[in-house]
Amino acid sequence: QVQLQESGPGLVRPAETLSLTCSVSGGSLSRVYWTWIRQPPGKGLEWIGYIDYTGSTTYAPSLGSRVTISADTSKNQFSLNLTSVTALDTAVYYCARATNAKGVEYWGQGTLVTVSS
Amino acid sequence: DIQMTQSPSTLSASVGDRVTITCRASQDISIWLAWYQHKPGKAPKLLIYQASTLHSGVPSRFSGSGSGSEFTLTISSLQPDDFATYYCQQYNSHTFGQGTKLEI
User: Fold this and answer.
1) Which residue among A7, A25, B52, B57 is the one 20 to 30 A from A82 at the CA level?
2) Minimal CA separation from A75 to chain B, in Å
3) With the C-alpha atoms ordered A96, A102, A105, A110, is the resulting torsion angle positive or negative?
4) What is the pLDDT of residues A78-105, one digit of tens each?
């Protein structure tokens, strides 16, 4: 069974960098997409981006160059960095595993990140 | 970018009702659509993938249909556990619909 768990600071100052890590256990590493998704308070789900099994990344155009997703396969972890954050980046952040066949099949429990001074 | 539009935004229903949620894509996405159920404080759950395939463990009262640009999620007989927010997502640019809140 695949399990994912987010970790990282719950409070980030404006203009700083939001950094989260997702620890993964179980499941295949092939042909999967390690994904970040967020949900701002009172709003819907927003796809942030992914790193795939080859190490290639794809990001939401709306986040532009602020987002970087990386992976450390030796630790079974992947990470999200979001630079120059504002209050609009306050959200519950989910890490997840997606495939071409099924979409997002496995999700972490989510972690709330608040951007505030 | 492909836009996904769900309707309605909110749906009021009762236990035992049959309900349908619609998701429209701004262009043809074939069958590459998934449906998720999301409850407050919990991780979303995959219900349907490839427009109509029921994910493992999902009750058979859930069904999906459609292809191209119009899709539906149907719950045949609402149960108390089904009151949640439902999202569609297309696979290509990964965009989610804005969500449909199903309330009592």
Assistant:
1) A25
2) 23
3) positive
4) 999 999 999 999 999 999 999 988 999 9
